Amino acid sequence: MHLKSLVTRLLLGVMAFVLAVSCSTTDSTISTSTDAATEPTEGGQLRVAMVTTGAKDDGSWSQGGYEGLQLIAEEFNAEVTLAEMVGDEESEEYFRDYAAAGYDFIIAHSGGYIQSAEKVAEEFPRSKFAIVTTYPGNNKNLGAIAFRSGEVGYLSGALAAMTTETNKVAYIVGDSYPVYEEEAALFRKGALATKPDVEVATEFLKTWTDGEKGKEVVLGLAEQGFDRFAINADEAGIEALKAVTAAYDNVKIVGWTNDQYELAPDQVLTSMLQDLPRLVANSVDLLLQGKWEGKLYKFGLKEGIYSIAPFRGSLTEAQEAQFEDIKNQVMVGEIDISPN
């Protein structure tokens, strides 16, 4: 749902809050002041808004955020609303409208929203904002929640190198946000630590939704002999996965976010599962505990936010044991997962 100017709607006398999940909407006076309240609205109900770049049923990042919003509604009895398919440039309007409307917590579900969230957070110092990406925060009212992305970057690189038959592996991601640059660096690190002579490629698509771009890039790499891919690119990545596995029987994929086995049952080695809904809900838990301090909060394997989908026979017993050993070393800190 796209929520256009709430202030304008108020002046026109027609105001509609359409909730993205099943919970009732309460009437509330909209404040246009930059001092909008940050405590739950009268009656104690928390009001949470989320803005996403993709559709709520995209099967990947945006859907995970939407499901997190549902968790927030269920677990914290919150009134929630969602604006989906919002580009980076237009996101500022949404954040400002939600803050002016008195929402207690505004979640920017994209690393591409950093600049607009920073600007609006400064305008509304008493509103609380969260970005779902690796970002240091402003030490005031704008914080971030993120995965320890280096963990799965390293593990997917190790797995790709462990199984490649052509000695060429690649990581494909939607954009070059800092979190994904870190993930790409750790993919390379994990691959080279596992097989020092392996060739590693990284591609930043600069899109999460353009399936044609995803297909063009992955097929181009496959033509060069790359046979193992970790693909983290939402809708663009799903189209890339489908295209390359249909064209090349020898190609194997490490899926991302959700279990993508059914997209290519014989060619998906596993998927790096992210409990994105729980990660998103953790931000509100921190807020209600009074711990939302405009900082970066990271979660990963140890907290159960990351997990690995079943291999379903895609690895030999020796490979599966080797991978499990690497994963355990990552979890306890025996393997350095810093990007450098």
TrEMBL record:
Superkingdom: Bacteria
Main localization, broad class: membrane
Subcellular location as annotated: Cell membrane
Endpoints of the signal sequence: 1-20
Keywords: Cell membrane, Lipoprotein, Membrane, Signal
Membrane topology: Lipid-anchor
InterPro entries assigned to the protein according to its UniProt record, in alphabetical order: BMP_lipoprotein, Peripla_BP_I, PnrA-like
CDD domains: PBP1_BmpA_Med_PnrA-like
Cellular-component GO terms for this entry: plasma membrane
Transmembrane segments: none
Domain ABC transporter substrate-binding protein PnrA-like residues, every copy: 47-337
Family: Belongs to the BMP lipoprotein family.
Full protein name: BMP family ABC transporter substrate-binding protein
Lineage, top ranks: Bacteria, Bacillati, Cyanobacteriota, Cyanophyceae, Leptolyngbyales
